[in-house]
Amino acid sequence: MRRAIGGWLAVACGSWTFTAAAETAIEQVFITATRTEQLVEDVLGSIEIITREELSRLPGGDLADALRLRAGIDIARLGGPGQQTSVFIRGSDSNHVLVLVDGVRINPGTIGIAAVQNITPAMVERVEIIKGPRSTLYGSDAIGGVINVITRRGAEAGRTVEIGAGEWGTQLAGLSLGWSGDRTDAALMASWLESEGFPTRVGDQVDRGYRHLSFTGSVHRDLGDWQLSARGWRAAGTSEYSDFFVTPVDQDFVNSAFALEAAGPLGDRAGTRVTLGHATDLIRQNQSSDLLETHRWQLEWQTDLRLGGYGQLTAGLLLQDEDADSESFGLAFAEGTESRLAYLQHQLGFGRHRWLAAAGYTDHQTFGGEFTWNAEYGYSPRADLSLWAAAGTAYRAPDATDRFGFGGNTDLLPESARSVEVGLRYRANGRHRLSLVAFHKEVDDLIQYVITDFSTFEGENRNFERARITGVEASWDYDAEPWTARLTASMQDPRDLSNDQALLRRSRESLTVNLTRSVGAHQVSLDLLAAGKRQDFGFPAPVKLDAYLLVGLAGHFSLNEDWSLTARVENLFDESYELARGYNTMGRSLFVALRRDFH
After folding, report:
1. Summary mean pLDDT of the chain
2. What count of other Cβ atoms lies within 10 Å of the Cβ of residue 111?
């Protein structure tokens, strides 16, 4: 951490909208927190927005490369490009993070970790992140928070062709076709990436590669006051890795999310939206019959009613029908699960005060009824200062693998959580924005794998009594041409109270810095990530992973009106570090992409 702060000082001394890249964060609209449009400054809770501009600086990267630079988010990757990647928000488990693509849940029903490593930044317009419990509006899994990946559409996609290359034999290509008219908006994008990779396991000498082809498409049509839309995302390919015995193996994968939606008014004061969505998550091992497969249909209905001086009332239903199939470690199952969520939310603002109250009830086919709630209050003593307090509950129903897979236990109970936070935002001169948040979360019946026979390492999943996570986050944003800067810091204590041990793969402290300088049509950016020590799996006791400091450089250079070049240097100082014990990470690497825009 001292090294990170010193690096930042050295740098400092040395020197619902779809137009996010052209707007400041203050002008942006945020949807995910309440399922309704809100100005960022009006959201009563901790949020993050990753803009199109930030995503465009990641040739050869994936969504996790952008998420890791946000306060309170830890990443654990089991090797190089395309390897399994876990996301931890504020110390919660990785399967406590709900991931959506254009509002469609992509968390699998087998192992609940969404495949963020297969989401290509070039296809994404922005990413909305809400930290804290949101089961009231989204159902199971939203204990740590919600990540909503919003793909590009129409005029945003433009008409471009891109090719690139980088370390580890990486090659990439992309095509984007976007069109926007008076009443119709359409986009089609394709992205291909292939990498020879590097050995996934420490001590291994065999490079393990990654092949990935993905598509997104959307059509939006205005029919009078109503809007109809269809959108879809699909990623497929092959990921090579080394198994527990350091044997080279590989697996094919498919991830997808599709949706049809109709939205329009109901009279003068109400609007409604109906969405039918489908998601697929498939992993098929090529050296055996092992597979993990999830297919999920979801049907959503939401109505917003404006109550004049009494605020806005939102009511909704979310129906989900999931089929999960698995064959792994010699165990096979096929499990169907249905769930129904009904929610009601009221938002009210008067003078300097804002209130939100929400309640949700989930009827789960296996675990019965679950009631969750959120309550939030905000106060603005001055136009440039906002204070808030928020509390809520959330839960996660054990997935099919928890119950029937390796270590499966059909007697498991759902995990439940209670969370509170207080925070403030301060804006100065339209250029500076400061925020400070303190949070406390408790998780009951946390599910963990327990070894019952140390000679064979066999065991079962069990509910532990309790986990507690406390922490503080701070951030500073600066935006005044030609400079933009962002500094975030997080300190947390994620702890398993059953044995007073730190929860694994989550750092106690982290610091991130981004400094960007525009020079005409060109842009250069420096990123810094410092993460503290973490505990990881070990035998007979957990082991401690060292702290690390990563520095990256990125540049976007306009060659002329039609051509541009983007370059990214990852791990500039070739830091040796681990995100998960026994797995290699990327050394110093260069990725370059050349783009042609057709106007």
Report:
1. 92
2. 21
Six-digit token string for 334 = 């096929």
Question: Where does 139-205 have alpha helices with state H?
Answer: 154-157
Domain ranges of the chain: 16-597
How many CA atoms are closer than 13 Å to the CA of 224, on its beta-carbon side?
2
Q: Which residues, including other chains, have CB under 8 Å from residue 598's CB and lie 6 or more apart? A: 158, 159, 160, 161, 562
- Quickly list DSSP for 416-471: EEEEEEEEEEEEETTTEEEEEEEEEEEEES-EEEEEEETTTTEEEEEE-SEEEEEE
Residues 6+ apart with CB under 8 A from 374: 133, 134, 136, 137, 345, 356, 357, 358, 390, 391, 392, 393
- pTM, two decimal places: 0.94
Q: Give how far the C-alpha of residue 246 lies from the chain's centroid of Cα atoms, to the nearest Å.
A: 30
Q: Which of 176, 31, 55 is nearest to 103 (CA)?
A: 31
- Token pair in block for residue 129: 């992140």
In angstroms, rounded to a whole number, what is the distance separating the alpha carbons of residues 318 and 563?
Answer: 45
Taking 50 as the threshold, does the pLDDT of residue 117 lie above it?
yes
If you average pLDDT over residues 435-443, what whole number do you get? 97
In contact, 413 and 450? CB cutoff 8 Å: no
Token pair in block for residue 377: 């209050």
Whole-angstrom Cα distance, residue 76 to residue 78?
A: 7
DSSP bridge partners of 60: none
Structure-block tokens of residue 421? 């936070």
Q: Note whether 576 and 545 are within 8 A (CB).
A: no
Judged on CB neighbours under 10 Å (0-12, 13-18, 19+), 375 is: middle
Residue 344 near residue 313, CB atoms below 8 Å: yes
Residue range 165-174: mean pLDDT, rounded = 96
- For domain 16-597, say whether CATH 3.40.50.720 is its number: no
Buried b (16+ CB within 10 A) or exposed e, 143-177: bbbbbbbbbbbbebbbebebebbbbbebebbbbbb
User: What would the mean pLDDT of 454-476 be, rounded to a whole number?
Assistant: 88
Q: What is the DSSP string of 94-142?
A: GGGEEEEETTEE---SSS----GGG--GGGEEEEEEEES--HHHH-TTT
Give the integer Cα–Cα distance in Å for 535 and 567. Answer: 34
Question: How many angstroms separate the CA atoms of 420 and 470, rounded?
Answer: 10
Residue-wise pLDDT for 367-378, tens only, equals 999 999 999 999
pLDDT value, residue 330? 78
- How far is the C-alpha of 206 from the C-alpha of 78, rounded, in Å? 15
> Strand pairing partners for 171?
165, 194
Q: Select the more confidently predicted residue: 464 or 333.
A: 333
Q: What residue type is assigned to position 8 of the chain?
A: W
Contact 64, 50 (CB under 8 A): no
* Cα of 202 vs its chain's centroid, Å: 27
Confidence (pLDDT) at 27: 59
Question: Nearest Cα to 416, choosing from 432, 438, 393, 388?
Answer: 393
